[in-house]
Amino acid sequence: MKVFVTGGAGYIGTHTLLQLLAAGHELCVFDNFSNASPVALTRVRQLSNRDFAQVEGDIRDAGALHRALADFAPDAVIHFAGLKAVGESNEKPLLYYENNVTGSVNLLAAMDAAGCRRIVFSSSATVYGEAQYLPFDEDHPIAPTNPYGRTKAMVEGVIADWTKATPNASAVLLRYFNPVGAHESGRIGEDPRDIPNNLMPFVAQVAVGRREKLSIFGDDYDTRDGTGERDYIHVVDLAAAHLAALAYSARATGCEAINVGTGQSITVKELVAAYEAACGHAISAYIAPRRSGDVASSYAATAKAEQLLKWRAELNVNDMCASSWLWQSDNPNGYPIDVSARRR
Ligand code: NAD
Ligand code: WQD
């Protein structure tokens, strides 16, 4: 199948490319490298021993998208491209609405022009907002609490409307919980440009000596040990969910939102302990005040993914930490930035 992958050079995109290539799909990656390195795609080619088309372009540029889709004529699109930092979205909401919402509208219009009717979209559990009940199932009310989350909820609505108006269209909105970990090779992984916002990359940078200590944001939540609990999902399992979603979209029409998580919660302290076991030394941490906007607990109901996608997570927190550590210790500063290293 021919699959057009926006944002394919990023963290989740690169892991998914590897599985798409292994399954024999023909790919075109469309990315503006605003939060990714071209080296990541070079490494995907090396690891897979396969090649694919690559277009440097911005989803806000409707003309560039139309040309790329018309040239490639895909059977399906996986849409990862987007900005994802919650804090930045509070400071620059218009940038987020333009990039994530306008960019997605452009993409659907270009798909229409190219006659492509299948899309898998990177949504987020953040669309649920404050939990009315747990675990979050897909019928939980949608009430995001920040601009980033609102862009995801809006794009879900746009895609649902597009699906209704487009004969035989099929859309899967994958609501990721907390993606972590890396490919088993240690050659690709998460490479935050600035100070990591998320727990696992921060822990990884403390473990490798790039940062002094972890701030644990609150130990007075109503959880097993007082620290926040989340549903961490291994990025390799998450990548597999995209292939399952593509297969599902070939046999179904309409629009479905589907959680992608393990259904298990892990606290901050539990994750740090697992990382210490993976890296073999203590991780310096202290208890800091709660982070504004955080909730105590978030984890997924997974029945819908199992029923519709025939997919479930296989990897556990030890796999997540071990693979993250392999990536971080082999690439302490992330992907190389010097141009001469780009083709390695
Ligand atoms: P990432 O930043 O590593 O990947 C996003 C990719 O999109 C990057 O390669 C970036 O260069 C590209 N991109 C951004 N804006 C673009 C634009 N205007 N035109 C073309 N390319 C553009 O992030 P990720 O963690 O791989 O996330 C992928 C998707 O999954 C995002 O949409 C994100 O919102 C969503 N998501 C991520 C998480 C998470 O915690 N990582 C959780 C839920 C949902
Ligand atoms: C996890 C836990 C923190 C950092 C965010 C986005 C969400 C989604 C995934 C994209 C919490 C604690 C964290 C640190 C800490 N992204 N923590 N010290 O907040 O669940 O979700 O990323 O869609 O939209 O909101 O993930 O990794 O930031 O936090 O103690 O330095 O770790 O308080 O309990 P979160 P996270």
Question: Summed up, what is this model?
Answer:
With 344 residues, the protein is α/β, with parallel strands linked by helices. It is built from 11 helices and 13 strands. It has one domain (2-341): NAD(P)-binding Rossmann-like Domain (Rossmann fold).
Walk me through this protein's architecture.
The chain has 344 residues and is an alpha/beta fold. It has a single domain (2-341), classed as Rossmann fold. It is 41% helix and 17% strand. The chain is built from eleven helices and 13 strands. It has helices at 11-22, 38-48, 62-72, 86-91, 93-114, 147-165, 199-207, 235-251, 268-279, 303-309, 317-330, and strands spanning 2-6, 26-31, 53-56, 76-79, 118-124, 170-176, 178-180, 214-217, 229-230, 232-234, 254-260, 266-267, 285-288. It has a seven-stranded parallel sheet with strand order 3-2-1-4-5-6-11, with helices on both faces. A two-stranded parallel ribbon has the order 7-10. α1 links the parallel β1 and β2 (26-31). α1 (11-22) runs parallel beside α2 (38-48) and α9 (268-279) crosses α11 (317-330). The chain is globular. The chain starts with a strand and ends in a 14-residue tail after the last helix. Residues 340-344 have low confidence and may be disordered. The structure holds nicotinamide-adenine-dinucleotide (NAD) and UDP-4-deoxy-4-formamido-beta-L-arabinopyranose. Residues 84, 86, 124, 126, 178, 197-199, 202, 214-217, 228, 230, 268, 291, 294, 298 line the site of UDP-4-deoxy-4-formamido-beta-L-arabinopyranose (WQD).
